[in-house]
Every structure is written in C-alpha cells, then in structure tokens.
Amino acid sequence: MDSIVVTGNGPLQGQIPIAGAKNACLTLMPATLLSEEPLTLTNAPRLSDIRTMAQLLQSLGAEVSQLQDGQVLALSSRALDNHVADYDIVRKMRASILVLGPMLARDGHAIVSLPGGCAIGARPVDLHLRALEAMGAELDLRDGYVHARAPGGLKGGTVDFPFVSVGATENALMAATLAKGTTVIRNAAREPEVVDLADCLVRMGARIDGIGTHTLTVEGVDRLRGATHPVVPDRIELGTYMLAPAICGGEVECLGGRFDLVGAFCEKLDAAGVDVTETDSGLKVARRHDRVRAVDVTTAPYPGFPTDLQAQMMALMCTAEGVSVLEEQIFENRFMHAPELMRMGARIDVQGGTATVTGVERLKGAPVMATDLRASVSLILAGLAAEGETQVNRVYHLDRGYERVEEKLRGVGARIERIKGR
Ligand code: UD1
Question: What is the CA radius of gyration of the chain?
C-alpha cells in the first residue's frame, strides 16, 4: 500500500486548481440510468471512486467513456441488461446505493447489495429504502441485498425524512422524476451536490420545484432526455486546500473556488484569523498572524459547517492559540484522526461526539495511519506544519477523493512525496 511522506517546509505560495465535486459526480453518474439518451458530464474529477462508479454502471449495461484525460464522462444507458448491483463492487463504495432509485424508476425492478464505504459510523440506508417505499416500491432484504420491485412503475408520494440525508434525498429525487404523479420530498438535503443533481435532472427534462430548499416537489414525466452538465466545484477539496496556507502560512489562491460553496467554513476561518478574498479566478487565502486563534465548530447539514471538513479543521486547531471544541453531529464515529494527530504531539480529548483541542505551538512529524478519506488529508495538512517528517500510511482512501494531491501541494511549495507500496 502506498504511503505519503510530508516534511514541514514553511509558508506556501501559489495556486491550486479545484476539481469537480466527487460527491456530485457520484450522484450525477447514476442519473444516466434514468434515460436512454446520452448524458455528458464535464469538469469530472479523476478519482478512484469515479472509476468504481463507472465500473458499477458498466456492469449494469451502461456505456461509460472517459474523455479528455478523464475530465469528461460520456455516459449512455440505452438498455440495461443487468439489474443486479453486485456486492463485489458495491462494498467498495457506499454511493453505489444511488443506482437503486434510478433503476427501479426506469425498469420497475432492481437488486442492489447493501453498501460498505468509509468506516465512520453505522451509516444505514433505511431512509433511502423508506423513500422508495413511499413511492410504491416493494422491498425485501435478503442475503445482504435489497430486492426492489415496482410492478406497475413507481407512483408519486410524500417522502418525509426524519432528518437530513444527502444520499437518500438524491435517491428519492432521481426516482421521483419518472414516478407517475407528484412526489413531495420534505426535509430534503440542500447540499450543493443535491442542487447540482437537481439542475442536471432539469436539463434532462425533469420537473422539479423548490431546488435548494427543504421541500422538493417533483412532477413525474414519462421519459428523460440526454444532456450535458458541468459538475459543480468540490467544496470539500476547496476547503481542504484553503486550510493549507492557514496551517503553514503564505498565500494560496484556490482556482475555481466560490464563497457560496463554503460560507459557514469561511466564517470560522475569519474568526480564527484567516483572510479569504474573492479574486477573478477563485478564492485567495492567507492568515493574518503567525498563529491562528482557536474557534469552536459544530458540524451540521448544509449550509452549516460540513462534516467532511471537520478532520481538516481539527488539524488547524491543533496549533491554534487557545482551546477549541469540535462537535460532530452527523456521524457517530468520526474522530479516528484524533489519536493519530496526538501521535504528532496534538493535545486532544475526545468524549463521545465532542473533541476538545488545546493548541500547541508546533506539531512534530511521526508515522501515522490514515483511517478514512478526510482523516487521511487532515494528517497530510498536519504534516505540512509539523517539524520534521510525517509518514502517512494506508493512503488508499486518499485516492478515492483527492486527485493528484501531491502534485497540487508541491505546486505551492510543499515537500510531499508518495512512496509506492509493494
Ligand atoms: C454524503 C457524502 C459524505 C458526507 C455526508 C454528509 C456522498 C457520496 N457522500 O454521504 O461525504 O459526509 O453526505 O454530508 O455524497 N443515515 C441514516 N439512514 C440512511 C441514510 C443516512 O441513518 O438511510 C444517517 C447517516 O448514518 C448519517 C446521517 O444520516 O449519520 C447523514 O448521512 P447522509 O447525509 O445520508 O450521508 P451520505 O449521503 O451517506
């Protein structure tokens, strides 16, 4: 398995291009299953999760071609010759469950393995299933698979989520576009990736009201057409690279970055003493003083502080002046990076869903273990600011969500190398 070696090297300077959003692309790709006409996605990120989704769609009978070095995805699902999403692919990535709604809506039957994914909590799919049941689906859970049927097609219904789920909203929304009649989705997620999916579905001919709000009203149509859609920039990759100059000093411009994608995050950066300014081509970031100030952070659904930036924010807080309290409200087990940061000299006390971080002046390089996608990158950020060498082991999670991470960070002056594993 590969590892990454980072050596603390002082201030960073330059530009980092931000890719299209992994999480948007992973829900836009299954949208191809809703139409017999081609769907083209531009600004696609080049990541292993995207390749896994391509593999899954191909196993169902869709055609997927990666053009322009993977930045354009040409998808086509003229006919699906298999309606079983196999465990061997699904276990690699939780987002695989997103093929269930579209397949069921299109052909009235689907069998999908229950997913795996990052080990950041129980992460069930009950809300996805309940939403499809509200549209008339008959579901049966057998041998680790969801067997779904809608003999006369899905019918419009009311989906009332007890709490916000990004994936369940996406599955319900895609299914509703082809259901007969009107579907109302209450307590829908408003994440930019959900909005991006809704925008793409509208391009394909779907009728959706309330995009970007908590209530989505979908008028089912008989068929969807093809479309070309640009993937929204990745706000998590953006936030991650914005933290690099906040941690190391210097000034970095994140190309393609937009304030509206990272509002709550920018408020916290400002409170910590980090300036973010809009430029013609993105967002420029520099800290105001040598050391940032401690700020408290509570994760919440969009537009709140994203759980996917909590680990990286903790890396920043490790060297802040003062004590910060980080509360994780989305996932029950998402502080696995804390003990690893402590190996680097951080002072962190985790009690349930709350981590209290007492800033130290300097972290020290150490061998650490990447436990999940965002944890991996938080350790790299910490390593950039640490004294000496940090070896981040087991980085395969990183390649699921960050394209060319070493190249992008080297481009702004970081000392970072990948060591190929055997
Ligand atoms: C998506 C993102 C992930 C991000 C998360 C929260 C993708 C591919 N992944 O994940 O990076 O961290 O949103 O912003 O887009 N839950 C249930 N039952 C369900 C579904 C979810 O109990 O059927 C729970 C989860 O365990 C979690 C919470 O709901 O505690 C929110 O999860 P959800 O928004 O569904 O996350 P994902 O869509 O899996």
Answer: 21
What CA dihedral angle connects 193, 49, 318 and 349, to 10 degrees?
Answer: 90
103-127 residues labelled b (16+ CB within 10 A) or e (exposed):
bbbbebbbbbbbbebbebeeeebeb
Query: Hey, which residues are catalytic here?
Result: 118
Contact 220, 192 (CB under 8 A): no
Give the three-state DSSP class for 68: helix
CA dihedral 304, 306, 311, 313 (to 10 degrees): -50
Q: 142: which strand partners?
A: 145
First to last CA, the chain: 6
Please list every protein residue whose CB sits less than 6 Å from any atom of ligand 1.
23, 26, 94-95, 121-128, 165-168, 193, 307-308, 330-331
Distance 23 CA to ligand 1 centre (A): 11
What pLDDT score was predicted for residue 284?
98
H helix runs in 75-116, sequence order:
87-90, 100-107
Distances (CA, A) of 372 to 17, 78, 155, 236, 326: 23, 36, 38, 14, 18
Cα–Cα nearest to 230, from 71, 66, 62: 71
Q: What is the pTM of this model?
A: 0.97
C-alpha torsion angle, residues 394, 370, 50, 190 (rounded to 10): 170
Best of 28, 98, 163, 165 for a ligand 1 pocket test (most atoms within 8 Å of beta carbon)? 165
Ligand 1 atom closest to 302 (CA): 14
- Ligand 1 atom closest to the Cα of residue 125 is 23
Element (H, E) at 230: strand 227-230
- What average pLDDT values come out for the chain (422 residues) when binned by 10 residues? 91 98 98 98 96 97 96 96 94 94 98 70 82 97 94 96 97 98 98 98 98 98 98 98 97 98 98 98 97 98 98 98 97 92 98 97 95 92 96 90 95 95 76
CA of 307 to the centre of ligand 1 (A): 10
Q: Which ligand 1 atom is at minimum distance from the Cα of 167? A: 38
In 3D, which of 235, 248, 233 has the Cα closest to residue 409? 248
Q: Residue type for 34, please?
A: L
